[in-house]
Amino acid sequence: MSRQPMNSCLASSSHIAAVFLFHCLVIFFLTISNISSSYGGNNETDYQALLKFKSMITNDPYRVLTSWNDSFHFCDWGGVSCGKHHKRVTRVELISKGLEGSLSPHVGNLTFLREFLLLNNSFEGVIPHKLGHLSRLRILNLSYNKFSGEIPTNLSRCSNLRSNKLVGSIPKEISFLSKLNTLRLDANCLTGGIPPFLGNITSMEVFSANTNPLGGNIPHTIGQLKLLRKIQCSECNLYGTIPHSIYNLSLLTHFALPVNRLTGSLPLAFGAMLPRLVFLQLRINQLTGVLPPSISNCSELVIFEMAFNSFSGKVSIDFANLRDIYEIGSHYLHTMASYLHT
């Protein structure tokens, strides 16, 4: 009879030990989970991608990446923003930080990234093709760096790549970006002309490719961009006539094609067709004919540069209607005076 209480005590002790062990395991796993969370946790991919990005930086003069260490959750690192609920990286903003180095292809693993802003640094090398994996990316600004090579054909959002050393032509894959509204490629070394397929991006509002040796004609398909507000292609070695379809873009505010080899004349109804113009820059081309009197209708005009062309006849633009003008190309004043006396 004395064995029963002993067995009962043993069973009770075993039960208590099991409960204690269970609680210890729960505490252990919760602790591991918290530690894991601080180092990325379920978001380990984002954590590792950011560390790979940092590892490719060769100079950080303002020490902006000093917070990128294990002491902080990566969502609290300088220049990094995350979603409130899923704690995945949605934005990286490192503008004008003096950073030098190359861009790690592991950035392509930040699958929740929506904005990637590295403008005005000194990144070199090619733009990784893995950036094309970022299907959620909406804003990409790599301007004013030293990137070289061609524009990756799979780049999902190449909205702002100006002032680099990119070569080759504008890739056809850009035409698949049905929601792209801004394409800035200024100050690179791009060739191959303005491709006709850009006319397929009907959401585009800004196209700027200043200072590229593009060459070729302006395709008439640009006239399909009914939302276009700005076209800026100075010093692009463009030639031929300005397609008439462009004059149907009634939302245009910036019409800037200076320092090219454009020929032909402007339509007499120019000002009536483009009444919202603020910047009109066609200086240093080979345009002929008269300056359309209808430019008087462009009442919001601020910049008016038409010098060094081959216009003829009297100037009959009513500048009294152009009250906001604060810059007329200085050389044009002499040209205009000679027209007024012919």
Automatic annotation (TrEMBL):
<dbReference type="GO" id="GO:0005886">
    <property type="term" value="C:plasma membrane"/>
</dbReference>
<protein>
    <submittedName>
        <fullName>Putative leucine-rich repeat protein, plant-type</fullName>
    </submittedName>
</protein>
<dbReference type="Pfam" id="PF08263">
    <property type="entry name" value="LRRNT_2"/>
</dbReference>
<keyword id="KW-0433">Leucine-rich repeat</keyword>
<dbReference type="InterPro" id="IPR032675">
    <property type="entry name" value="LRR_dom_sf"/>
</dbReference>
<keyword id="KW-0677">Repeat</keyword>
<dbReference type="InterPro" id="IPR013210">
    <property type="entry name" value="LRR_N_plant-typ"/>
</dbReference>
<dbReference type="InterPro" id="IPR001611">
    <property type="entry name" value="Leu-rich_rpt"/>
</dbReference>
<dbReference type="InterPro" id="IPR052941">
    <property type="entry name" value="StomDev_PlantInt_Reg"/>
</dbReference>
<feature type="domain" description="Leucine-rich repeat-containing N-terminal plant-type">
    <location>
        <begin position="44"/>
        <end position="82"/>
    </location>
</feature>
<keyword id="KW-0732">Signal</keyword>
<dbReference type="Pfam" id="PF00560">
    <property type="entry name" value="LRR_1"/>
</dbReference>
<keyword id="KW-0325">Glycoprotein</keyword>
<keyword id="KW-0472">Membrane</keyword>
<dbReference type="GO" id="GO:0038023">
    <property type="term" value="F:signaling receptor activity"/>
</dbReference>
